[in-house]
Specification:
By secondary structure, the chain is α/β, with parallel strands linked by helices. It folds into two domains: about 180 residues, FAD/NAD(P)-binding domain, CATH 3.50.50; about 160 residues, FAD/NAD(P)-binding domain. The protein has eight helices and 24 strands. The protein has a five-stranded antiparallel β-sheet, with no helix packed on it. A five-stranded parallel β-sheet has the order 4-3-2-12-23, with helices on one face. Helix 1 runs parallel beside helix 2, helix 1 crosses helix 8 and helix 5 packs parallel to helix 6.
Length: about 425
């Protein structure tokens, strides 16, 4: 992008998960110019990695593809920047000045055809962050199979650069430039939507649950990737340690949540997440046995029916009590889960193939993360609606919520932002 472009009323969306995408396309279709800034190499956020999501238990390709089509239909009225981050914000509602840092992809997006000829010749591998480290990609890689943009990217921490250069040599369109540098663009926008999303709580901090100690202890987002057809096991729910079918699975609720030493709050959706993932196991292995260790089950409203269906499944066992410890089980790779069964008034110990920790949602907001916005936060780090007119919060940046609620929240943020930017004109000044 070069030069200066004059635009009508504009909205900047920071983050492109379900909240950000929804806010962006709703503002776009209301007649506003929209800019999306996303730190990852692709749009879609964490939902892109789910196997299914509520309320219809459909794959992410469903909701995301609809939004991707709306993004693409925006043409010149919507621009998105991946591998990008906000450097600074100044000004006020109707005229915010925003500096955006563009980190290099090392692949020219307008030339890359995603032909994949670069992949076989690359000698280096990296841990695949999209699959939470459960497999590897080459140093030049496609973020995932439905990535937008469908363009390759180079991991500069892994790539050998000019000492190798094999990908550059085989690229038929000359798309790979290993010498790309960061760039800065400047936007002037009328309103800003903060939709920076969340990350799972670091389960390694919970000593007694064995995450990072036992290969067969994973968290709930990793379980989504195991069950996903484009995941590290192509949808087979297998033990990471040896690839054996995981037919005995324990779900540990409130892993770090409702705990003053970790996350004092309840993320509200973890119960439903485990119930959903229990259904994955039961559908794939009819002879499986699932154990859900819980404090309380939150499945209100329409989700009560889903809970009752899971509760009536003879292969799913609900145990009310906190897990006291996880240790080696009876056979190599097995895990023994020990807890107090509060309803039975006794200790219970089960031998399982896999343990899934229901870790809470940690907001990606925090003091100083977006310089110049001066966001206020609650005691847990969730962003509060800014006192600065023209700045709005959407999705899990504001509080824990499921996908359906996130979509509604993104729509609400778009309405507020559209009102804030109605009289604004935007300009884009870019260095490239």
């Amino acid at each position: 992008m070069t030069g200066t472009e004059a635009r009508e009323a504009s909205v900047l969306v920071i983050g492109s998960g379900m909240a950000g995408l929804t806010a962006a396309v709703e503002a776009l279709e209301a007649g506003h110019d929209v800019f999306i800034v996303e730190k990852e190499a692709y749009l879609g956020g964490r939902v892109a990695g789910f196997h299914k999501y509520f309320p219809k238990l459909c794959p992410p390709a469903c909701g995301l593809e609809i939004n991707f089509r709306r993004v693409k239909s925006g043409h010149r009225h919507l621009k998105f920047f991946t591998l990008a981050e906000v450097e600074s914000v100044s000004g006020q509602a109707g005229s915010f000045n925003v500096a955006i840092k563009l980190n290099p992809r090392f692949v020219l997006a307008d030339r890359c055809t995603a032909c994949a000829q670069c992949v076989p010749v690359c000698p280096e591998e990296r841990s695949n962050a999209f699959n939470y480290g459960m497999d590897k990609t080459k140093a030049i890689y496609l973020p995932h199979e439905m990535a937008l943009p469908m363009k390759y990217v180079v991991d500069p921490g892994t790539c050998l650069g000019d000492t190798c250069n094999k990908c550059v040599e085989v690229c038929p369109t000359g798309a790979i430039d290993l010498h790309m540098k960061p760039d800065i663009i400047n936007l002037q926008v009328g309103s800003i939507i903060v939709a920076t999303g969340w990350q799972p709580y670091d389960a390694a901090k919970i000593d007694i649950l064995g995450f990072g100690q036992y290969g067969n202890v994973i968290n709930n987002v990793m379980m989504e990737r195991l069950a996903a057809p484009n995941g590290p096991t192509r949808g087979k729910i297998l033990r990471p340690s040896d690839g054996a079918p995981a037919k005995r699975v324990a779900f540990v609720q409130c892993a770090g949540s409702r705990d003053v030493n970790h996350l004092p709050y309840c993320s509200a959706i973890c119960c439903l997440s485990s119930l959903k993932e229990a259904s994955y196991v039961r559908e794939q292995y009819p002879d499986s046995q699932v154990y859900i260790f819980y404090i309380d089950i939150r499945a209100s409203g329409a989700y009560e029916d889903f809970f009752q269906r899971m509760e009536s499944d003879e292969g799913i066992h609900f145990i009310k009590g906190k897990v006291a410890k996880i240790e080696d089980g009876a056979e190599p790779g097995d895990l023994a889960v020990e807890a107090d069964d509060m309803l039975a008034g006794s200790k219970v110990r089960v031998n399982v193939d896999l343990v899934v920790l229901a870790t809470g949602m940690v907001p990606n907001t925090g003091e100083g993360r977006i310089p110049g916005l001066d966001l206020e936060h609650d005691e847990f780090g969730f962003a509060l609606e800014s006192r600065k007119t023209g700045v709005h919060i959407a999705g899990v940046a504001r509080r824990p919520m499921d996908v359906a609620t996130t979509v509604r929240d993104g729509t609400g943020a778009a309405l507020k932002a559209a009102q804030s930017s109605a009289s604004d004109r935007a300009t884009v000044t870019a260095g490239r």
